[in-house]
C-alpha cells in the first residue's frame, strides 16, 4: 500500500492508533496533524487536537486552550470558530507579545494590573484589535467606580460615578437620568396579567406591534421632556446590562475657559455663564453625544459651563478650594486684565486637564467643572514647561 503523506507526521498517527497521547509541538505541527487526522478520518484525534491551539505573536509562541481563547465572546477567535476543525485560524499576529500576555490573563479571568496611562492606552488598542468587548469596557471605564462622598441629597449617597476620557465614550451607552426607569415602567405597564399586550386592539400580533410602538413613542417623548427640562438632568453611562447607570465625568485636556466679565465690581466672576472652547476632536465627540440625546449642537465658541461650588482649581501653581478661595484671585486677575479685556468681554484662562460632570438643561449640554489645572498668562504657562533631562545635556551631537 502506498500513501502519499508525510512519514514524520504518520509516525505520530501510528502512536495515536497504538493508544498513546499525541501532542502538537508548534502551530505547523498542529496544522499537519489536523490535516492527516482528517485524511485518515480519526475523529478522536481531531477532537483531542481541537482542545488547544497555538498563537504566534511576533515570534513568541503561546499554547492556549480553545475554551480559554473563546472567553469574552464574541471576539476575533470566536468569529473563526467554524473553521477550527481544519485549524485554519490565522495563528501569526504582528502584535506585542507582552500585551498579549495581559490579554490571556483577562481571558483566564484574572484582573490586569495597569501600570500607567500608556499601558492602558496600548492595552485598549489590543483589546479592540482582538474584539474583546468586555476588556474594552473595563479599560474605558477605569479600574474602579467612585461613590459620591458628600452628596447634597440623601438619595445620592450610594450613586456611583465613573470618569472617562471623552474619546473612549461609546455614545450608544449614554442616557439621561430617568429614561431607564421610565422605560421599565412603560413596558411593564403594557402587559396584562395574562402576559398579553394591553393596547386594547384585538388581533394578537397586530395589538402587540401597536403596543410596542406606543411604548417606544412614550419613551422618546419622556426623553424629550427630560432634556428640555429647565432643571439640570444628569447624563448617565450604562455600558452593560448588568451595570446600573453611572454618573458620567469626562476628562478633557487643552481647552480654554472664558470667565465672563460681570461689568460690575459687586458681581461674582464665578456665575453660570462661562464659555469653553474645545479642540476639534473633543467638539466632534460632544456633538455625537448631543445627537444621541436630541440636544442642541455645541459650537466652537459658545458652550455654557458652570463651576462647581466645591471646585478644586490649581491655577498658576497655587491650589484653590471652592468658590470662597477662587473668587478673590479670579476677581484680581479680571481687574488686572481689564486693560486689554474691557468689561463685557471675558477673562481668558488656559486649562491643561479638566474634570467635568456632564448634564443637560433646557435642551442644551451643560458642563460643570469639578477639578481643573490652568494658567492665566503666558508667563505662568512658561513656568510650568519642562526642561529636557540632564542626560540629554551630556549627549554628544550626531
UniProtKB/TrEMBL annotation:
A single Pfam family it belongs to is BTB_2
Q: Indicate, by first and last residue, each region the UniProt record lists as having compositional bias (Gly residues).
A: 197-206
Q: Which InterPro entries is this protein grouped with?
A: BTB/POZ_dom (IPR000210), SKP1/BTB/POZ_sf (IPR011333), T1-type_BTB (IPR003131)
Ranges of residues in domain BTB: 51-147
Q: Which SMART domains match?
A: BTB (SM00225)
- How is this protein named in the record? BTB domain-containing protein
| Residues annotated as signal peptide | none
Q: Where is this region: Disordered?
A: 186-212
Amino acid at each position: 500500500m502506498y500513501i502519499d503523506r508525510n512519514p514524520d507526521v504518520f509516525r505520530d498517527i501510528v502512536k495515536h492508533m497504538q493508544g498513546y497521547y499525541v501532542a502538537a509541538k508548534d502551530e505547523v505541527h498542529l496544522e499537519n496533524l489536523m490535516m492527516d487526522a482528517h485524511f485518515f478520518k480519526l475523529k478522536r484525534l481531531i477532537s483531542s487536537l481541537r482542545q488547544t491551539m497555538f498563537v504566534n505573536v511576533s515570534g513568541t509562541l503561546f499554547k492556549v486552550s480553545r475554551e480559554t481563547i473563546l472567553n469574552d465572546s464574541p471576539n476575533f477567535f470566536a468569529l473563526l470558530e467554524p473553521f477550527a476543525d481544519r485549524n485554519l485560524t490565522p495563528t501569526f499576529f504582528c502584535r506585542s507579545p507582552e500585551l498579549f500576555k495581559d490579554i490571556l490573563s483577562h481571558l483566564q479571568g484574572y484582573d490586569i494590573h495597569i501600570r500607567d496611562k500608556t499601558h492602558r492606552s496600548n492595552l485598549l488598542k489590543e483589546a479592540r484589535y482582538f474584539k474583546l468587548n468586555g476588556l474594552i469596557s473595563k479599560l474605558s471605564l477605569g479600574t474602579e467606580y467612585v461613590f459620591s462622598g458628600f452628596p447634597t441629597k440623601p438619595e445620592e449617597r450610594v450613586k456611583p460615578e465613573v470618569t472617562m476620557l471623552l474619546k473612549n465614550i461609546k455614545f450608544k451607552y449614554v442616557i439621561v437620568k430617568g429614561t431607564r426607569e421610565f422605560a421599565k415602567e412603560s413596558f411593564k405597564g403594557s402587559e396584562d396579567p395574562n402576559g398579553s399586550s394591553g393596547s386594547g386592539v384585538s388581533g394578537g400580533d397586530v395589538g402587540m406591534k401597536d403596543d410596542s410602538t406606543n411604548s417606544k413613542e412614550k419613551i422618546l417623548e419622556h426623553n424629550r421632556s427630560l432634556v428640555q427640562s429647565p432643571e439640570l438632568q444628569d447624563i448617565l453611562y450604562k455600558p452593560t446590562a448588568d451595570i446600573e447607570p453611572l454618573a458620567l465625568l469626562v476628562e478633557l485636556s487643552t481647552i480654554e475657559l472664558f470667565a465672563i466679565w460681570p461689568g460690575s465690581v459687586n458681581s461674582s466672576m464665578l456665575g453660570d455663564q462661562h464659555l469653553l472652547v474645545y479642540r476639534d476632536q473633543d467638539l466632534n465627540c460632544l456633538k455625537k453625544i448631543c445627537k444621541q440625546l436630541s440636544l442642541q449642537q455645541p459650537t466652537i465658541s459658545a458652550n455654557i459651563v458652570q463651576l462647581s461650588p466645591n471646585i478644586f482649581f490649581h491655577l498658576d501653581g497655587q491650589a484653590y478650594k471652592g468658590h470662597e478661595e477662587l473668587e478673590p484671585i479670579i476677581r484680581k486677575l479680571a481687574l488686572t486684565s481689564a486693560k486689554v479685556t474691557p468689561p463685557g468681554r471675558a477673562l481668558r484662562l488656559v486649562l491643561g486637564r479638566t474634570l467635568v460632570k456632564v448634564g443637560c438643561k433646557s435642551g442644551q449640554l451643560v458642563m460643570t467643572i469639578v477639578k481643573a489645572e490652568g494658567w492665566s498668562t503666558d508667563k505662568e504657562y512658561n513656568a510650568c514647561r519642562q526642561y529636557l533631562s540632564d542626560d540629554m545635556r551630556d549627549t554628544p551631537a550626531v
